[in-house]
Recover the amino acids of this structure.
């Protein structure tokens, strides 16, 4: 990676710790030492002077300044404010900054529950804080106008890809999820300008996902990468990047732990598309719900229709006839 990195627009103060954690392994050695020093004690780093941080990391003040600019800050003072804001917010919410500590065999389930819930909550909060809403808006617009949408992911990411495809299909979007590379490549090869291909890989290093997105882009399709860092090979072949955060726990490496953050981003895409195509989406949702009604047991407590989106007509809803209770039949 080149040493000289240009300054980018100042980011939101939220999510900076997660961004540093995600991008640290890909940084040059000197910048990586600064990242490690900050991550080891973010609250202390927020109070340290630029000279203190340079000494702790074995670098120079110039290198610390370069580190700040790489993450979009004009200088060290702005980075300190971001760190102080985030560590203070975490303390107020009683989140443990050292979420990644090991789960031991003798740990009680309530402690395991707390660690996993904290890790997932932090990942979702950091994803929301660092997500580029303008890019998200562009992706939603592209899907609304697309002839077809292809989503590709492997292993855990395949589950997220399938979830997005199912949701978009439910509102009438022609969307397919692929998890087998040959099928994905052959379908990517028939995409055309105006179509959309979405690749999911938290590491951004999965060869198959990179190949599929590159193939789709080569045929003029709009390409989107849902990844954990913008400095990856997958990011280089995609038109739009949607960045997710992740916090590892024992038995849940970073790629597996990223699932909830991925689903947050994909859910936003789905809801955004449904908003843009409201009437058509409501009609499709109602028709698809009606098609599977006969495969659900009657629910006296609530009607499935009440959970479906409704048109804001201001009219009173039609009275529905409840199916007879056949629970005692054999």
């Amino acid at each position: 990676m080149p040493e000289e990195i240009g300054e980018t627009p100042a980011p939101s103060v939220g999510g900076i710790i997660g961004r540093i954690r995600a991008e640290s392994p890909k940084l040059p050695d000197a910048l990586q030492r600064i990242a490690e020093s900050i991550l080891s004690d973010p609250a202390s780093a927020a109070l340290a002077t630029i000279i203190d941080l340079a000494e702790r990391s074995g670098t120079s003040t110039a290198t610390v300044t370069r580190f700040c600019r790489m993450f979009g800050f004009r200088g060290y003072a702005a980075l300190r404010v971001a760190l102080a804001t985030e560590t203070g917010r975490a303390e107020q919410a009683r989140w443990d900054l050292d979420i990644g500590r090991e789960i031991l065999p003798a740990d009680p389930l309530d402690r395991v529950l707390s660690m996993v819930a904290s890790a997932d909550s932090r990942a979702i909060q950091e994803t929301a804080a660092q997500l580029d809403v303008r890019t998200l808006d562009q992706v939603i617009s592209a899907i609304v106008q697309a002839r077809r949408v292809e989503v590709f992911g492997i292993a855990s990411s395949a589950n997220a890809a399938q979830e997005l495809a199912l949701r978009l299909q439910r509102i009438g979007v022609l969307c397919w999820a692929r998890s087998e590379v040959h099928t994905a490549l052959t379908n990517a090869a028939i995409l055309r300008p105006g179509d959309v291909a979405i690749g999911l890989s938290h590491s951004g290093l999965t060869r198959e996902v990179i190949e599929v997105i590159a193939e789709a882009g080569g045929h003029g399709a709009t390409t989107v990468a849902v990844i954990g860092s913008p400095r990856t090979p997958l990011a280089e072949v995609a038109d739009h990047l949607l960045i997710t955060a992740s916090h590892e726990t024992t038995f849940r490496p970073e790629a597996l732990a990223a699932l909830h953050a991925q689903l947050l981003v994909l859910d936003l895409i789905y809801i955004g598309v449904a908003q843009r195509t409201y009437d058509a989406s409501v009609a499709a949702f109602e028709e698809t719900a009606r098609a599977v009604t006969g495969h659900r047991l009657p629910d006296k407590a609530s009607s499935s229709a009440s959970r479906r989106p409704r048109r804001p007509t201001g009219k009173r809803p039609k009275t529905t006839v409840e199916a007879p209770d056949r629970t005692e039949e054999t």
Q: What stands out?
A: The beta strands are 149-153, 175-178, 196-200, 222-227, 240-243.
